[in-house]
UniProtKB/TrEMBL annotation:
Belongs to the LysR transcriptional regulatory family. The keyword Transcription applies. It comes from Paenibacillus elgii. CDD domains: PBP2_LTTR_substrate. This is HTH lysR-type domain-containing protein. It holds the Pfam family LysR_substrate. The keyword Transcription applies. Residues 10-62 form the HTH lysR-type domain. Keywords: DNA-binding, Transcription, Transcription regulation. It comes from the Bacteria. GO terms for molecular function: DNA-binding transcription factor activity; transcription cis-regulatory region binding.
Length: 301
């Protein structure tokens, strides 16, 4: 099989996988569609198995295609590492793919990342947002070199380096927070809770607390961004269970208040990497920079 493989076939394979379309992959790579079709046919012949199922609205991987994906991503990673190794004598260069939780990145990532880019202008840091489970999968599948997550996954194949101590707390507009201060958990029964939904550990932690208190809110709302959650809380429309780091400015300004009787939950943001994989020089530099740039500061009062 190996003698029939060409690197560009694997590049095209990943483009089709990510675009879920032969035509969109061709557009992305600057090919005509017949070139993509031909390369995928040759790749399937080399693999001896069908790699894609053609659907009315695109394509999706077969079981064999999913197995090949792991090795295709390893191939791409090795290519990047080889390029960096050949440029070892010059300034550090290369690409680092970082997965982050949007709520944390919005408040804590961009300052340190700007400083890193100034120190290493030839290193391209690509940032994508995702929840913890998605980030773990991306790191394992080599879709990301490292991830920023809000808790240690306690996984044997992943390393976790603590980065920043934080805490989850219940927040609301001052009037609603005052009502919670008087009534405690019983006030929740007439209030909505805003969050990211069940994929987010903040929302799961909130639901666990509600279950422990044997209470339920009047309603739940799921939003795609921390900004929407904060605006919903500031308006008095909902309360939320979020990291202090994400609402520190609003708490200081008095537009949000902590629902202190409901308690807090400590968390620790950190960097994860895949143990079996040796990190590239660029990824090692970013990892060391983030750990040493002051993001470890304890934000808990």
């Amino acid at each position: 099989m190996i003698e029939k493989l060409e690197g560009r076939f694997l590049v095209t394979f990943l483009a089709v996988l990510e675009e879920k379309s032969f035509s969109k992959a061709a557009e992305r790579l600057g090919y005509v569609q017949s070139t993509v079709t031909s390369q995928m046919r040759q790749l399937e012949e080399a693999a001896g198995q069908k790699l894609f199922d053609r659907l009315p609205r695109g394509v999706e991987l077969t079981g064999a295609g999913r197995r090949l994906e792991v090795y295709a991503r390893r191939f791409m990673q090795l290519g990047r590492e080889l390029e960096e190794e050949m440029n070892e004598e010059g300034a550090p260069r290369g690409t680092v793919r970082l997965r982050v939780l949007e709520s944390f990145a919005a408040t804590a990532l961009w300052g340190p990342l700007r400083s890193f880019m100034g120190a290493y202008p030839d290193i391209d840091v690509q940032v994508e947002a995702g929840f913890q489970a998605e980030t773990l999968e991306a790191v394992r599948l080599r879709q990301a070199d490292m991830g920023l997550v809000p808790a240690d996954p306690c996984a044997a194949d992943l390393t976790f380096d603590p980065l920043l101590e934080d805490e989850l707390l219940w927040i609301a507009a001052p009037r609603e927070a005052e009502a919670v201060g008087i009534e405690g958990w019983s006030a929740i029964r007439r209030m909505r809770i805003a969050g990211f939904g069940e994929r987010c550990m903040y929302s799961r932690a909130a639901e666990a607390q509600l279950a422990a208190q044997r209470t339920a809110p009047a309603g739940r709302a799921e939003f795609a961004s921390m900004d929407m959650i904060k605006r919903a809380a500031c308006s008095g429309w909902a309360l939320a269970f979020v990291p202090r780091s994400a609402v520190a400015a609003e708490l200081a300004a008095g537009v949000l208040a902590e629902c202190a009787p409901l308690g807090r939950q400590p968390i620790c943001h950190g960097l994860i990497r895949h143990k079996p994989r040796e990190a590239s020089r660029a990824a090692q530099l970013l990892h060391r920079y983030l750990l040493g740039c002051g993001m470890r500061e304890v934000m808990i009062e």
